[in-house]
Known about the structure:
Blueprint: H1 8-14, H2 28-60, H3 92-125, H4 130-145, H5 148-160, E1 169-171, E2 174-177, E3 180-183, E4 185-186, H6 190-220, H7 227-244, E5 251-252, E6 255-257, E7 260-262, E8 265-267, H8 269-296, H9 299-307, H10 312-342, H11 354-365, H12 368-397
Antiparallel strand pairs: 1-2, 2-3, 3-8, 4-5, 6-7
Amino acid sequence: xxxxxxxxxxxxxxxxxxxxxxxxxxxxxxxxxxxxxxxxxxxxxxxxxxxxxxxxxxxxxxxxxxxxxxxxxxxxxxxxxxxxxxxxxxxxxxxxxxxxxxxxxxxxxxxxxxxxxxxxxxxxxxxxxxxxxxxxxxxxxxxxxxxxxxxxxxxxxxxxxxxxxxxxxxxxxxxxxxxxxxxxxxxxxxxxxxxxxxxxxxxxxxxxxxxxxxxxxxxxxxxxxxxxxxxxxxxxxxxxxxxxxxxxxxxxxxxxxxxxxxxxxxxxxxxxxxxxxxxxxxxxxxxxxxxxxxxxxxxxxxxxxxxxxxxxxxxxxxxxxxxxxxxxxxxxxxxxxxxxxxxxxxxxxxxxxxxxxxxxxxxxxxxxxxxxxxxxxxxxxxxxxxxxxxxxxxxxxxxxxx
Length: 402
């Protein structure tokens, strides 16, 4: 490279001159600023008018505003709660917290189950087995064409038509009745807590070993096996810890006492109907997303993997699905958001989620605006959290060009 300095004449020519702002309507930059200020001012004026008008109307009707009602005793009976709740003692704030947790219980479990079911059905639609392909296609076309609300009412009616507890259907220690599904519940002891901690430690160790294996593969071309280490850390280690503490394994089995069951775990008909309806309905859409994502992978990938002697199942897991995820994840995010927001239909079958409890709260307190604001804030927070996580995951699996 030459040590000669660049000609300053050419350097000045390369640098574009900065345009000065002129306070003239003929200047496009000035016009753009003026229009933006006008639009922002109009929006602020409309919002200010609505707020002022609302405050005047509320004051004229002697309706109190604010969130002070959250500290008052609720008195709302709630059938199922993940945290201790007593309607005679706890406040409206506690009741709304129970509603949020009930909503999350449906959303999180529903997303996991819908993903699994939808993926299986989507792969089944591409099966070479004629019967399996037609059955999965019938499932998708049928479930997507029936409104979700009707499906929820159908499942709730089916569960309500089950026999009474005294004539309940028994499968082992599981009882099905119109009071819900009663299942044995593991009696937690310190050994189980230590085993759970060992599992978390093993999970972290497996992740670290997987990263080490990836670096080893990039350096040498040989990837150490991850699954034996993961099996030892996440399965063997918790079992050893559990055995050291005496290996307790005691279940609390539900027992019929009088007209209902006592002990064990319980899934209410409302929760199970809502979960069943949301999972089966959303899985039909996820199945189409999975199917289209797999079909988006070029056929040559199948042929190349087959030429290497790989079996079809391994080709799907190791070659096709990792590439299809880049097509699947963005629309899958929308389905996760739809499932979460559709859980608000729980009010139609009596499941007490955030919408149901907030509606009862605003009816008792008259705080309609605050109640609706709470519902909006909860769903907005959950939806943004799902979007942020899925965007992070989508960026993580994206192809990186060299």
